[in-house]
Amino acid sequence: MSDLASRITKPDAAPAAADSEAKPAQTAPAADNPADGAGPGLVESNYDVEVKLSDLQNDAQNPLYSVSAFEDLGLKQQIIEGLLALNFKKPSKIQERALPLMLADPPRNMIAQSQSGTGKTAAFVVTILSRVDFEQPHTPQALALAPSRELARQIQGVIQSIGQFCTNLNVEAAIPGSISRETGVRANVVVGTPGTVMDLIRRKQFDVSNLKVLVIDEADNMLDQQGLGEQCVRVKNMLPKSIQTLLFSATFPDNVMKYAERFAPNANQMRLRQQELTVAGISQMYMDCPSAQDKYDVLCKLYGLMTIGSSVIFVKTRESANEIQRRMEADGHRVAALHGAHEGQSRDALLDDFRSGKSKVLITTNVLARGIDVSSVSMVINYDIPMKGMGDREPDAETYLHRIGRTGRFGRVGVSISFVYDRKSYQALSDIANHYGIDLVQLSPDDWDTTEKKVQDVIKSSRARPDYAPNALDS
Q1: Are 404 and 416 in contact (CB under 8 A)?
Q2: Domains and CATH numbers, the chain
Q3: Who is most buried in 97, 174, 439, 459, counting CB within 10 A?
């Protein structure tokens, strides 16, 4: 167990050197209608963006440049008004580097990797709105694909928010049960899941002949996962060959990147440096539970801290989510469980309750690990360490990063707590910590007063920071 021990920040120790060099992000005000990229004024980011230009972009007539104001992009006035209405004062790092390239004519493909909460959704939404001819309100011109109905609905909301002043903007969600068989798709912007979009095109209920831009969000998952990957390829093969393809994700493993480069040929590329991948505003902690059975008791002890804001508990299976919900409710705690076994409208209602604060603790599987943004989430608990491969043979570092990215967004404070209880879970978390260079703070189930103080210090602090040192946090 020495690997994980080497990544632990002791309570009385100074932060690791890598952390001491990082500047804490400024806290952003709460958003009225939060969504990834459509929230409050963006914080000053301290991460670096690596840019790899396509062969086309190496042309001296098309030099790379960035912008410091949305007005410099030549956007339609309605789009600028929508951004200002959402308190976007200036572009984030990923936006200021990506938007000039994505908006250039002739259109060029893009593969962009940027951590959660940095405005990547707004970047591709602005591109979508810039490509649409609003004089054709019922002609589909832009398509965005997402891995889940929840994320598709969220992207739909972001497009409607940023495009609120765009006359004749129609956005439809191509998810199960939402598109009328009588009318088919009657919108100029479509957001959907690959399977439903593929079926609509096959049934000739979705005319794709005028599509100008294809966005694939959470592209690492969409292109790597066998079922979704095949569906994405089939959808793309049905679209115009000249379509601009934009791939976005917080992570791009090397094997997926190679495939992405074939999926979006001659693409400009943007990637965060490896050391910048972990979400900057999150204090990452772990709890060494005595046994698997003790994990539940520790979880219940954390309940009071979970409800300071909102919390997401990630578990491995639907059955585990249901069982933990049953036990916690029997013990008098108010929780909800959301996973793929729920019907679509039930899932929408559960997520709406969580967004509104009616429900404050949500137990879920990886269905919510990607892209979903609820501004009040202050804690993520990895009840089960994410694993991948047949028989859960290796830790899933990418899913860990996506999970903890549900909190600490846009510079807000956040805590992630991962439960370990045996050598396998301990080693898996150790491997993830070493992969990202994370300094994990150990929490003790035997000293609850100290544990509560550590977590409360972070949640109640006035600014986010990734390290933890007692008496160093603003309260």
Answers
A1: yes
A2: 2-25+280-459 (3.40.50.300), 49-275 (3.40.50.300)
A3: 174
